[in-house]
Design goal:
mainly beta, Nucleoside Triphosphate Pyrophosphohydrolase, 2 helices
Length: about 160
């Protein structure tokens, strides 16, 4: 069971996501859901009694089928937004991963549904993309330090 708390119009989520690079760190994998105008990092909710590293490994395998990725901790993000009738507060633990495989398609659908569109983006062109949370671009450009982001989209 996912770690998620709902009380009336408030929702808390505990999530994990990944800045997933190709082997030479020139591309990063992002996704966009149908009907949205922004990209996000792959990942999902952390389950009860699950360590965050195990959660990101599980999520990447479920969404993409990728295994044997080297992960390291990159950031913690506190995010506040209003969506779907809820005031959402989430804690997002963000890992960096290196995909050692070959990239055969730069655009493809995720394994969990046709509404998830993945895209390998050139890191050098990252400023041309709208990404949520916005501050993650800094970590994509310079993934050699640990970050703490706070983003409030309710203001």
């Amino acid at each position: 069971m996912d770690i998620k708390y709902i009380n009336n119009d408030f929702q808390f989520l505990y999530r994990v996501s990944c800045v997933l690079f190709n082997k030479d760190k020139t591309k990063v994998l992002l996704f966009k859901c149908e009907g949205r105008d922004f990209y996000m990092l792959p990942g999902g909710k952390i389950a009860q009694k699950e360590e965050s590293l195990q959660a990101i490994k599980r999520e990447i395998e479920e969404e993409l089928g990728y295994k044997n990725i080297k992960y390291s901790f990159l950031a913690i993000s506190e995010e506040f937004a209003e969506a779907k009738g809820y005031y959402n507060q989430q804690i997002n633990l963000i890992y960096q991963g290196i995909f050692e495989g070959n990239i055969n398609n730069t655009n493809f659908k995720g394994l969990e549904g046709d509404w998830i569109n993945f895209e390998w983006i050139d890191v050098a062109k990252i400023d041309n993309y709208k990404i949520v949370p916005k501050q993650i671009k800094e970590a994509i450009i310079n993934p050699n330090k640990i970050y703490h982001f706070v983003e409030n989209l309710t203001k």
